[in-house]
Design goal:
heterotrimer, A mainly alpha, B mainly alpha, C alpha/beta, B: mainly alpha, MetI-like fold, globular, C: D-Maltodextrin-Binding Protein, domain 2, D-Maltodextrin-Binding Protein, domain 2, five-stranded mixed β-sheet, four-stranded mixed β-sheet, 17 helices, 46% helix, 13% strand
Chain lengths: 297, 273, 409
């Protein structure tokens, strides 16, 4: 019976997709096209007012890749993203699971944790740069009072540590997002399987590994994927805290792209960096598609 | 089966510790809003303002209200658009059994990848041509360009995880496909819808770049732009910025507290004993 | 009946046309000062009240960080305003692309250009033409805590005048037990860092196209020594000028380099403080300071260039300038015109402002150079490399000199 209704089944779904696709073409594709074109042009403050900017092919990309800052920015981006996502996800998942249990205050604590993410990046970045300041920051003050350290830690002004400082801030900032999505996933899980498992005598850990994780596969995949994409794009937080400094210790690809486009007004080069970032994320997205969308569930 | 009393107490204690640890920066933001300008930088740091400026808080509060209203207008509108297109699109992608469906999914992922700041100029060109500058529609559409793909991706996952059997049963019973979607499938993914709605709301409430570029009329600007009233070219009144930020966050906490009931009510009882 | 209807419509049509012709033009002005005691709001209101029948001024506040981006997008799409305020070092990049109307003739006719501080006026000149007018001027000088001086056995009335004295005082004033550093300044990874350091380069006989003179290297060595010895905090590389000054206001630093915009932080302090000129290099004795402040440009695309110029002339007339800068702003900003700034009974009566005005005589603009942001970034990197110990001051400035060469060919 499924076979024969497959055609109109698909027709219906296609119709449901129409609004999304239309919207997509106009408002999403055009900006992407715009930026690709910009990266292939000699686009600087001098040329933006011209009706037609000179086309220079891949020259911007070559300039970018040859710049010594490229390798540094790329590595910083990779460290920043993997570090952030790893901790955001694990802590977020732990909190989602823990606060899912029924006890007083679980809902209250869950709502409060959202707060971190609700604040504007400029506010979060500024407050954390105060907390991490080596002179007047609360962190060093507490660490010293508890005798954990004797010498101040220069969280944001030591080039070797600065990246860690911004990762810590970004982890705090990203925990709510992960926690929320995973809570949503947990809420949708069917209860009968757990009932059956309990009767069978499986313990908590086994339930988690063999029931929860597999059932939450799609949600976990989507959360990780989105987490990676959003973290790669992070700009405001780092900009407010260090502007990519000290020297270039916290310059990631988005920071460099912004600097090129909106400080130096080398819009072509800035777009090229953004497109390279884009391509990296594309690769990750393709991996996601292969593992989470190749099969039917 | 209920959790034992001891465990409940333990969990509550742990949650309090988690709360305190996580909220520390929020607390810091709040008290900074009450400190005098340079006290924020005192060595050693003061855990409570020397003489809290509640007066300032009140002044900032009065100033914030019109901006907060605008923030809500934008956030609610984006939410409606996003949930509609997100639910229909996510459902379609989940149920559509064609081999090239994954490329559509990829396309929506790609939509998320361009940093917002690089979208401003091209979108400005489009909206100016459509005469939508200084019109909320431009901001709503611009924000939707990243909330909709997100909603589609997340709701697709939710619809995939939801049992198809109930839907099929309804179809066999004679319900139309749309009816099956609306009355059966949609309620099943309600928790995910609420989560997606929450995240969409927070994103659109927190939009800055599109609002500042497309809304030049001060009366229309949301709180994220209003914040910059205290961020001047040479002087930044951080205490007022923090006070304003605290007030901006307040409505969202209240909203979320209210809506949270719907997520976990009656679900997953005893799943993790 | 129909005739009456047609007549009515015709009259409506005619009156609407004539009224739109008669309606005063509206000039859009973009500004970046929300906090500045409503300077622009007052100015626009005043103009609109008195001369609104000629044309009105409508303001758009743009956060400073977003201004250049907004302006470039506007230029790209032909939606730029009539007037815009831009931070003076960035003025040249826009002048270079011809974004501004050429005001040279109008200014010559007006004849009051030579009343302005030389540094300020130089920042609006590019390629031999005048592209705008300075709107305000400020500079930096040396603040010091007289009470701390006394505690350290130093004479509160003779603050350091040379780099060597600065170093000596910095060391004596540093008291770790009291969380007190001798000196604070701003060296962060932004325009503010370059703003504070460039004068020292210039005092060292250097300039942006000759940045590694021995004097300049000595300047960077001075700053590096301060941080290395703990006489200044290592956090100077990550805080802005305002935060840097808060160290001074909280008595965690005994000397500070900063400008008049932070004076409000000293309103409620309980210690005695003073202000003096920037210390100079002992051997070279060159006075120099940074030039801060904004310029106002009329956009070339504006249909109302003559009107915009009328507004500018009005704003910069002696009466209005005194009213705006002295009454409205309470004397907290210095007008860009030397003749007005030096009027007896006003700014010069205030000891603090008098020092800033004197210092302004030696203030030099940054550039003007159309690629100033890149030049500034190279300087910031050199400062950071030296202050974090990644390179010696000499190596840092030599490398910077090499990177800067292409900009001056």
């Amino acid at each position: 019976m499924k076979f024969s209704i497959k055609k109109d089944q698909n027709n219906f779904y296609f119709k449901m997709l129409v609004p999304a696709v239309l919207f997509f073409i106009i408002f999403i594709i055009y900006p992407i096209y715009f930026n690709i074109r910009l990266s292939l042009e000699d686009a600087t403050l001098r040329t933006i007012m011209l009706p037609q900017r000179p086309f220079i092919g891949l020259e911007n990309y070559l300039t970018i890749i040859r710049d010594p800052l490229f390798k540094k920015a790329l590595i910083n981006s990779l460290i920043f993203t993997t570090g952030s996502v790893f901790f955001q996800f694990t802590i977020g998942f732990s909190l989602a699971l823990f606060l899912f249990k029924k006890f007083p205050l679980n809902k209250f604590v869950r709502s409060s944790i959202i707060l971190g993410w609700v604040l504007a990046p400029i506010v979060v970045g500024t407050v954390w740069s105060w907390l991490l300041n080596s002179d007047y920051g609360l962190f060093n003050y507490l660490l010293k009072s508890l005798n954990i350290i004797t010498q101040e830690i220069r969280w944001l002004t030591n080039p070797n540590i600065a990246l860690r400082g911004v990762v810590i801030t970004n982890v705090w900032f990203g925990i709510p997002f992960n926690m929320l999505l995973l809570t949503g996933g947990l809420s949708s899980l069917p209860q009968d399987i757990y009932e059956a498992a309990k009767i069978d005598g499986t313990n908590t850990f086994q339930k988690f590994i063999y029931i929860t994780l597999p059932l939450m596969r799609q949600t976990i995949g989507a959360t990780l994927m989105l987490g990676v994409i959003y973290t790669f794009r992070v700009f405001d937080l780092i900009w407010v805290m260090t502007r990519g400094g000290p020297v270039n210790a916290t310059t990631t690809l988005p920071i460099w792209s912004y600097q090129l486009s909106f400080d130096f007004f080398n819009l072509g080069e800035g777009a090229a960096v953004a497109n390279i970032l884009f391509m990296i994320m594309l690769v990750i997205a393709l991996i996601y598609i292969k593992f989470f969308a190749g099969k039917e569930e | 089966m209920k959790i034992s009393k001891h465990k409940t107490l333990l969990f509550t204690l742990i949650s309090i510790i988690i709360f305190v640890l996580y909220m520390l920066p929020i607390y810091w933001m709040f008290i900074s809003g009450l400190k005098a300008s340079s006290e924020i930088y005192s060595i050693p740091p003061t855990l409570w303002p020397r003489s809290p400026l509640f007066n300032e808080l009140y002044n900032v509060f009065k100033m914030a209200i019109p901006y907060l209203i605008n923030s809500f207008i934008i956030a609610v509108s984006v939410n409606l658009v996003t949930l509609f297109i997100g639910a229909t699109g996510g459902y379609a992608l989940a149920r559509l059994k064609v081999s090239w469906m994954k490329w559509i999914l990829l396309a929506f992922l790609i939509a998320q990848m361009l940093p917002n700041i690089l979208r401003v100029t091209p979108l400005f060109v489009i909206f100016r041509d459509l005469g939508l500058i200084d019109n909320y529609i431009s901001v709503i559409l611009a924000i939707s360009t990243f909330t909709i793909p997100f909603a589609i991706i997340m709701l697709r996952a939710a619809f995939l995880e939801a049992p198809v059997e109930l839907e099929e049963a309804a179809l066999i019973d004679g319900a139309s496909r749309f009816r099956a979607f609306f009355s059966i499938s949609l309620p099943i993914v309600k928790p995910s819808m609420i989560i997606v709605s929450t995240i969409t709301f927070i994103w659109s409430y927190g939009d800055f770049i599109f609002s500042i570029s497309f809304l030049r009329n001060r009366a229309m600007q949301p709180a994220t732009v209003g914040l910059y009233n205290f961020i001047g070219a040479e002087v930044i009144h951080w205490n007022r910025v923090m006070a304003f930020a605290t007030l901006t966050a307040l409505p969202l906490i209240i909203l979320f507290l209210i809506f949270q009931k719907h997520i976990v009510e009656g679900l997953a009882a005893g799943a993790f004993d | 009946m129909k005739i009456k209807l047609y007549l009515f419509i015709t009259i409506l049509f005619i009156t609407s046309i004539t009224s739109s012709v008669m309606a005063a033009p509206v000039l859009e002005l973009w500004e970046v000062f929300p906090d500045d005691a409503h300077f622009w709001e007052e100015a626009a209101e005043k103009w609109n009240e008195n001369y609104g029948d000629q044309f009105t001024i409508e303001l758009r506040f743009v956060p400073q960080a977003e201004l250049r981006r907004e302006l470039s997008t506007a230029l790209m799409t032909g939606t730029d305003p009539d007037l815009v305020t831009i931070d003076n070092p960035h003025f040249a990049s826009f002048a270079d692309i011809g974004a501004f109307a050429d005001l040279t003739e109008k200014v010559e006719e007006w004849g009051e250009a030579d009343q302005y501080f030389e540094g300020s006026w130089n920042s609006v000149i590019y390629d031999g033409k005048i592209h705008g007018v300075p709107v305000d001027s400020n500079t930096i000088a040396l603040f010091y805590n007289k009470d701390h001086f006394r505690e350290a056995g130093l004479d509160p009335d003779s603050p350091p005048t040379t780099w060597n004295e600065l170093r000596e005082y910095g060391e004596k004033l540093t008291v770790p037990e009291k969380n007190r550093r001798g000196f604070t300044f701003c060296a962060d990874r932004s325009e503010e860092g370059t703003f504070q350091f460039l004068p020292f380069i210039q005092q060292g006989g250097g300039s942006i196209d000759n940045i590694n003179t021995p004097g300049a290297i000595a300047a960077l060595q001075l700053w590096t020594d301060f941080v290395d010895n703990g006489w200044a905090s290592s956090e100077v590389i990550s805080v802005g000028q305002q935060e840097s000054f808060s160290m001074f206001a909280e008595e965690n630093a005994s000397m500070a380099i900063n400008g008049p915009w932070v004076l409000y932080q000293l309103d409620d302090v309980e210690f005695e403080w003073g202000l003096t000129l920037m210390p100079v290099n002992d051997d070279l004795n060159i006075q120099s300071s940074a030039l801060g402040g904004f310029n106002l440009g009329v956009m070339k695309s504006s249909e109302y260039q003559d009107e915009a110029w009328e507004f500018i002339k009005w704003l910069h007339s002696e009466d209005i300038m005194i009213e705006m800068y002295w009454d409205v702003l309470g004397g907290s900003r210095i007008p860009p015109r030397g003749d007005i700034a030096n009027l007896p009974g006003k700014w010069v009566e205030n000891d603090v402002m008098a020092v800033f005005i004197e210092q302004l005589e030696f203030a030099q603009p940054r550039g003007p150079h159309p690629k100033w942001p890149e030049i500034s970034s190279i300087i910031q990197i050199a400062i950071h490399e030296s202050l974090t110990g990644a390179k010696t001051p000499e190596a840092a400035l030599n490398d910077a000199a090499v990177k800067l060469e292409p900009y001056f060919e």
